Amino acid sequence: MAKIAVEKSTGIVLDAWGDGYQLSFKSDGLHVSLHDQLKVVVLWITESECSIWDSITGLPEDFKSYKYKHDGTNWSLNSDWEEDTSQPNSPEEPN
């Protein structure tokens, strides 16, 4: 099972964490903790714009942030999502 952050206006899943994580909104963003130790503060996920849903099943095997929507029961592909196929630039050879 997973916990997911869902954008309220679109249903787009912004990110997902295992059920062992604790998620809480603070004034500076979403605090993600594991075993009562803060792991990360996600500044761009705010309580006014997102909901956190617990005990979600069926996380797609190819899950990526923004790729899917969730309506509280069902997963669906985000029709606006595009795979990033760009390759990082190779470092230039020194002169």
Keywords:
three-stranded antiparallel β-sheet; 45% strand; 95 residues; globular; mainly beta; single chain
Topology:
Elements: E1 2-7, E2 13-18, E3 21-26, E4 29-34, E5 37-42, E6 50-56, E7 68-70, E8 75-77
Mean pLDDT: 90
So how many helices? Answer: 0
What strand line-up does the widest sheet have?
A: 2-1-6
Low-confidence stretches: none
Shape: globular
Strand content: over 45%
How many domains, as an integer?
Answer: 1
Distance between the termini: 52 Å
What Rg do the Cα atoms give? 16 Å
Count of individual beta strands: 8
Q: Tell me roughly what share of residues is in helical segments.
A: under 10%
Structural class, by secondary structure, is: mainly beta
**Main beta sheet, described?**
3 strands, antiparallel
State the order of secondary-structure elements, H for helix, E for strand: EEEEEEEE
Report on this model:
With 95 residues, the chain is mostly beta strands. It contains no helices and eight strands. The protein has one domain (2-77). The chain has strands at 2-7, 13-18, 21-26, 29-34, 37-42, 50-56, 68-70, 75-77. A three-stranded antiparallel beta sheet has the order 2-1-6, with no helix packed on it. A three-stranded antiparallel beta sheet has the order 3-4-5, with no helix packed on it. Strands 7-8 form a two-stranded antiparallel sheet. It is globular, with a radius of gyration of 16 Å. The mean pLDDT is 90.
